[in-house]
Task: inverse folding
């Protein structure tokens, strides 16, 4: 079923198809340039152990159209991964959550069951942890991909990394210094958010999703609010749209600034590393001027925003942004003009356009490979003008390209913010309170999708409501879910010492992946 | 080279002489909460509004006036918005760390009492090395710990550092509600730290599980798993709050 991205779809309008038809549909559409936004298990009812079918949502960036399909409950089906690699992780996730087996999947294993799950469970049982009584699947060693041969060796890192960073486990298959393959095993950050969204009261969903990935608070909060507004048919005032965009662009600025500093640090170029750490804080503190929290917690609410800015506050923010913008431009230009930095970045961590397309990469790493993907332009949240901006595309697919995309997007964000704050200062604040959300206001048996271009890439939330308007399924898909396999591919053929640089240039979320 | 020097002159010296000078925080910043003593009657609006269950009935109070547990509060301000009598105030005070779990309770009408630093921390006065462990933290607390090593805060000048190996550390700084999948790694990291060792819980998730208290995948923070020496509340705590907490160990 095809629909405009702003529309909701009643489930009665998308009758179940057979799994074979869905497979054909996905293969045909993806070969025509559509992208897979989500593929998930859709239970028949909210009861425990209700049988589940598959549900998929695809998007065509050029036409702003989405397509959604669902099937009857299934036990197994022919895997779509061999023909459509974009489905690889989604199929593994469905297998883990619902036990629906994709037959012929090339690499079927758990997504969030950690490598040492068997030992962890044994220790938990002995010591009586919170999950001690929970049933566990058969303790089997995690099937890491292995390369064998003389002079081949394996490097294992994590879960606790050397820095102040989230946990994950990386396995490098190396030949001398050269990396032949990197496997990334996550799951350590699994907090069961999606499950909590289904059970908790609706009022708790927004605070939970603000914590889905801490550095993308405004991105996930926007995606959630937009989704509920589309479901409830709520119209958001243009002023609130602008305030939301201020939050989103500040988030983009802060994170791009921090990452450029981290990239500089990993090339050994310390001036930019040192300055950007401070300038990132300036942008975060500007977000705090907006809503009191440096990460934008509490900024959004259903139907609008919780905070507004008067003319004086706009002027103050504008001054802060101009000063920090000047600082970051100067700091990054110094780095980009340095020959030693260029030498280190060029050709490192190369991902081809073809690989990016096959894996379904999104956001800034995709744009660095020459893919014109940017939800701000293809699936805009409102009809606000994006003056002098367009998706920033580079074609070399290496760390340098990802650095340049970031650097260029900083310019765009600064321009957007300056025009938005100038406009906000000129319109008087809204007097009326934003609409209150009533859970019973959500229509039953309806599917809705929201896409927001977070700083990392496209955040996609999909909800399907049950008979009472409660969520039957809620999928929050962080761009990291699409992009982690891209990092693994970027490492191939590089040296192990290139890993920190590649990692920083993607800077993916661990908990956004694990949810 | 000239370009770098020119830019260096522009960027200037930015380290704040903390604690001799206090940081300027946003007027909207929500710091240490205060509760006024009001007659609540049967109104329970704040209890209903709080998304994290941070309000508890005050011990010994008949009419159900709330006590605010900073160990659970995410500083969303919902209680302040819900209270018809305006009992809740969030001050601009960033110093919130406590050596005890009870020290995080804000009781109506009771002023905040400064806690003396327990004598057992005196050996960390000149040098304190911490291994940070993220146990399902969302990366906000981690980011605000990380930022302490930048030039504004310059953690190193206090003799405090985040180090890579638990063997080099005097303790661990834990963030996150401790997912079941990180439990083993957290406990093993703690065991690898030589004694005497500290546990610092950074952020409301690490203190009590925060919003994830009810999740079947999480352990309600580190408090039930390890002996915590310092609690630093917030969601996430402001970097100045963390810095104040860590330096309070050295007094």
Result:
């Amino acid at each position: 079923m095809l629909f405009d991205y702003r529309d909701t779809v009643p489930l009665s309008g998308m009758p179940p198809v057979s799994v074979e038809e869905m497979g054909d549909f996905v293969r045909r559409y993806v070969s025509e340039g559509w992208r897979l936004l989500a593929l998930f298990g859709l239970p028949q009812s909210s009861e425990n152990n209700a049988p589940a079918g598959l549900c998929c949502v695809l998007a065509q960036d050029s036409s702003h159209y989405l397509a959604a399909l669902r099937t009857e409950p299934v036990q197994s089906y022919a895997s779509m991964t061999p023909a459509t690699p974009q489905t690889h992780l989604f199929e593994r996730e469905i297998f883990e959550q619902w036990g629906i087996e994709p037959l012929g999947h090339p690499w079927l294993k758990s997504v969030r069951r950690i490598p040492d799950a068997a030992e962890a469970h044994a220790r938990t049982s002995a010591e009586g942890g919170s999950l001690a009584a929970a049933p566990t699947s058969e303790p089997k060693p995690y099937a890491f991909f292995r390369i064998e041969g003389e002079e081949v060796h394996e490097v294992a890192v994590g879960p606790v990394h050397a820095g102040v960073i989230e946990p994950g486990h990386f396995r490098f298959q190396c030949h001398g210094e050269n990396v032949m393959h990197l496997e990334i095993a996550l799951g350590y950050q699994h907090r069961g958010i999606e499950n909590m969204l289904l059970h908790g009261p609706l009022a708790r969903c927004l605070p939970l999703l603000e914590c889905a990935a801490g550095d993308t608070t405004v991105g996930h909060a926007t995606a959630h609010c937009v989704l509920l507004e589309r479901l409830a048919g709520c119209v958001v005032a243009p002023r609130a749209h602008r305030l939301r965009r201020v939050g989103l662009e500040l988030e983009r600025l802060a994170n791009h600034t921090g990452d450029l500093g981290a990239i500089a640090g990993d090339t050994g170029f310390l001036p930019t590393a040192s300055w950007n750490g401070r300038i990132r804080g300036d942008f975060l503190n500007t977000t705090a001027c907006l809503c009191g929290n440096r990460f934008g917690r509490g900024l959004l609410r259903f139907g609008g925003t919780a905070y507004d800015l008067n003319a004086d506050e706009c002027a103050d923010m504008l001054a802060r942004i101009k000063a920090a913008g000047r600082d970051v431009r100067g700091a990054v230009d110094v780095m980009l003009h340095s020959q030693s930095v260029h030498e280190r970045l060029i050709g490192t961590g190369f991902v081809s356009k073809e690989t990016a397309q096959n894996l379904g990469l999104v956001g800034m790493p995709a744009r660095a490979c020459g893919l014109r993907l940017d939800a701000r332009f293809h699936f805009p949240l409102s009809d606000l003008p994006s003056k002098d901006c367009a998706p920033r595309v580079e074609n070399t697919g290496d760390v340098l390209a990802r650095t340049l995309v970031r650097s260029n997007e900083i310019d765009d964000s600064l321009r957007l913010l300056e025009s938005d704050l100038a406009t906000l200062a000129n319109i008087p604040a809204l007097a009326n309170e934003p609409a209150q959300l009533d859970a019973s206001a959500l229509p039953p048996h309806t599917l809705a999708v929201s896409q927001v271009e977070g700083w990392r890439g496209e955040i996609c939330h999909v909800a399907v409501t049950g008979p009472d308007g409660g969520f039957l399924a809620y999928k929050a898909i962080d761009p990291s879910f699409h992009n982690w396999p891209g990092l693994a591919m970027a490492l191939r053929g590089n040296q192990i010492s290139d890993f920190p640089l590649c990692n920083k240039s993607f800077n993916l979320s661990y908990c956004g992946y694990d949810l | 080279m000239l370009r770098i020097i020119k830019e260096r002159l522009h960027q200037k010296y930015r380290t704040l002489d903390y604690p001799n000078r206090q940081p300027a925080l946003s007027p909207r910043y929500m710091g240490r909460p205060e509760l006024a003593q009001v007659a609540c009657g049967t109104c329970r609006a704040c209890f209903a509004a709080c998304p994290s269950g941070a309000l508890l009935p005050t011990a010994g109070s008949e009419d159900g006036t709330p006590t605010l547990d900073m160990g659970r509060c995410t500083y969303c301000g919902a209680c302040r918005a819900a209270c018809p009598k305006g009992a809740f105030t969030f001050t601009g005070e960033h110093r919130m760390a406590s050596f005890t779990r009870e020290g995080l309770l804000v009781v109506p009408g009771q002023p905040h009492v400064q806690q003396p630093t327990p004598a057992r921390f005196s050996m960390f006065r000149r040098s304190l090395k911490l291994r940070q462990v993220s146990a399902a933290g969302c990366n906000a607390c981690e980011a605000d710990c990380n930022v302490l090593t930048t030039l504004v805060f310059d953690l190193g000048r206090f003799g405090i550092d985040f180090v890579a190996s638990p063997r080099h550390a005097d303790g661990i700084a834990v963030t996150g509600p401790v997912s079941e999948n990180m439990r083993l790694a957290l406990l093993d990291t703690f065991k690898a730290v030589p004694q005497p060792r500290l546990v610092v819980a950074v952020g409301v998730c690490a203190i009590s599980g925060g919003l994830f208290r009810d999740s079947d995948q999480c352990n309600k923070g580190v408090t039930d798993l390890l002996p915590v020496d310092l609690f630093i509340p917030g969601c996430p705590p402001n970097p100045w709050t963390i810095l104040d907490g860590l330096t309070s160990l050295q007094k």
About this structure: Chain A touches chain B through 69 residues (CB under 8 Å). The two ends of chain A are 29 Å apart (CA to CA). Chain A has 17 helices and 15 strands. Chain A has a mean pLDDT of 90.
